[in-house]
Each structure stands twice: as C-alpha cells, then as structure tokens.
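Same chain as my last thread, 162 residues:
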Amino acid sequence: MNMLGWLKQRNADRWRFATVTNEAQVAKLFNRMYEDYIQMYGLELEGLEHREASAVNLSSHYALDGHNPEMLSAYYVGIIQLNKSDEGIDAHWQIGQTGSPQWGQGQLFGDYLLIDFQYEEEDAPYAGRVVYRWNGKVWIGFWAEHEIYELGYERLSPLQER
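reply #2:
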C-alpha cells in the first residue's frame, strides 16, 4: 500500500471505529459510510432516501445478502440471528454454503443498529463494524473491517416466524 492509501485507511479507521453513544452519532456514521460507498462503487441504493414511517422490526432471524469489500461480484447470502440481551443485541451470522460463523454485539439506536463483529478464517482473527438502518421493510447496512479501506454492503430481510 502506498503512503496515500495508508493515510486514507488510517483516517477511515479513526472515524469508522470511534465510540458512538447516541442515535445522532450513529446516523452520522451511517451517512458517511453511505457517501463513501457511493464514491467507491458509483452506486446509489434504493430505499435509503425516503423511509417509510413504521416501527423498527427487530425480529430474531433474517435472510441476508450482500457483497464483500473491493468487489461487487463477491456476493454472498446467509442468515443472521439477532437476540436482545442485557448488553444490547447479540448477533450470529451464518454466511455462504459452508455457514461460516461470525458473531458480535451491538446496540439499537432508533432506526439504526450498530454491531461490532468478529470471525476467524484460516486461524486468523478478523474484526469490524456494521451499521444498519431500518427502512420500514428491511435493514440496509454498510460494514468495514479494521485496516481495509473499502466497504461491504448487507441487507437483512425478516424471515417469517413459525
């Protein structure tokens, strides 16, 4: 990585992983990540500009789809389980055909859900943060891992409880 790339990454990590304590801070983080996403990929996503007025739906299981940083073609699907706990929200992802597990903890801030996550791949630990916004039907989110400048995208659609 060249010096300019390193400086961009250090600056991005500083604000992406800063401590947030209220809805206004999380909204600012989400909006900044969305602006970066547009700049990186040239895509504006539907459903973010005009949100429907509705209560936040925090069901326990969601179907998820998204893409990894750097490549829109690195598409994935899976399931995420969200549970309320004394500490906030516990999250457990099962991603891809192999069901690669990821886990994390976060907080609900109005229409926003912020989760710090982690996982292991080939015995190496990874960590990051995802920020979702409820649009009245689905959760739309952007995620980053430490020391990776590009952002990933994820959409969570509530599964019908049986």
